[in-house]
Design a protein that fits this description.
With 334 residues, the chain is an alpha/beta fold. It has 11 helices and 13 strands. The chain has a 7-stranded parallel beta sheet with strand order 3-2-1-4-5-6-11, with helices on both faces. A two-stranded parallel ribbon has the order 7-10. A two-stranded parallel ribbon has the order 8-13. The model has no long low-confidence stretch (mean pLDDT 95). It is globular.
Length: 334
């Protein structure tokens, strides 16, 4: 455990970008329940069903200490005005254009949100100093790496999608700003996050929709794929542990750190599908396809640093996590 580990400071003001997004919503709700003041920032784009984002916001708006601002990370003027007015103590940047396959169809969205947007966040943290910037990276930065489990010490110079390249670039940019301007930054490589109020573009969600509708599901690489599925509550707990514990200076005098947050236990795609079928009480019609461009064969997180620094590792089993997701899904979609 980190020496001088500090628990959550509920007096501080936390800005969460992507506040109406899947992880942003769950993190905001948890921190609000603990008494923090949260500013949610989101552009509410239509990449997936925007009603889901509005429904998440409705839940958050029930909390007195939640303030929502609609805006775009690529709009530097609006972002600077927000920092000027709110002066957040901590920033959690979860706002980004998500999705690997979509980055092949629409690369422009990724440059705007993930590159220019992240640059604007760094500039605001520079001009309106914050105690800590925590930002989402992704397990996709490991690309086609063969060595498993994936360690933050591994080279990640061979991305197989533009999405992955933007996330790796974010890490490099953060390092530069930590070094030049003393901004403490922590990057989190998330591994296939799932759970209630999730993203409909993710496989587990679209599989559920199709199975319930009696439509066939598409299984790529003939089902021979492995994913380190991580339940959203574990991700939230991991972030919460870090908020008040910015990195110490490393051997180069830079307050910069990267962590993997994954379940540390890859599941075979077909086992995942079988577990989902069990939870739904319905068998899927399956169509098998070859590997898709931008996809990777397996993801597998080495979480040694997470355990050493925070005495924490994700532990929700796929059975427990999918059961909770399916219960939410059936209730939400009636």
């Amino acid at each position: 455990m980190l020496e001088n580990y500090k628990p959550l400071d509920t007096e501080q003001k936390i800005l969460i970008t992507g506040g109406a997004g899947f992880i942003g919503f769950h993190l905001s709700r948890k921190l609000l329940e603990e008494g923090c003041s949260i500013i949610g920032f989101d552009n509410l784009n239509e990449y997936y069903d925007v009603q889901l984002k509005y429904d998440r916001l409705e839940i958050l708006k029930e909390f007195e200490k939640f303030h929502f601002v609609k805006g775009d990370l690529a709009d530097k003027e609006a972002l600077c005005a927000l920092f000027e007015q709110e002066r957040p103590d901590v920033v959690v940047n979860l706002g980004a254009q998500a999705g690997v396959r979509y980055s092949i169809e629409n690369p422009d969205a990724y440059m705007q949100s993930n590159m220019i947007g992240f640059f604007n966040i760094l500039e605001c943290c520079r001009h309106y100093p914050v105690k800590h910037l925590v930002y989402a990276s992704s397990s996709s930065v490991y690309g086609a790496n063969k060595k498993v489990p994936f360690s933050t010490e591994d080279k990640v110079d061979n991305p197989v999608s533009l999405y992955a390249a933007t996330k790796k670039s974010n890490e490099l940019m953060a390092h530069c700003y930590s070094k030049l301007y003393g901004i403490p930054t922590t990057g989190l490589r998330f591994f296939t996050v799932y759970g209630p109020y999730g993203r409909p573009d993710m496989a587990y969600f679209s599989f559920t929709q199709k199975i319930m509708a009696g439509e066939p599901i598409k299984i790529f690489n003939n089902g021979d794929m492995y994913r380190d599925f991580t339940y959203v509550d574990d991700i939230v707990k991991g972030i919460e542990n870090m908020l008040n514990n910015p990195p110490r200076e490393n051997e180069n005098g830079v307050r910069y750190k990267i962590y993997n947050i994954g379940n540390n236990q890859p599941e075979k795609l077909m086992h995942f599908v079988e577990t989902l079928e069990k939870c739904l009480g319905k068998e899927a019609k399956k169509e098998f396809y070859p590997m898709q461009p931008g996809d990777v064969y397996q993801t597998y997180a080495d979480v040694t640093d997470l355990i050493e620094d925070f005495d924490f590792k994700p532990s929700t089993s796929i059975e427990e996590g999918l059961e909770k997701f399916v219960a939410w899904y059936k209730s939400y979609y009636k």
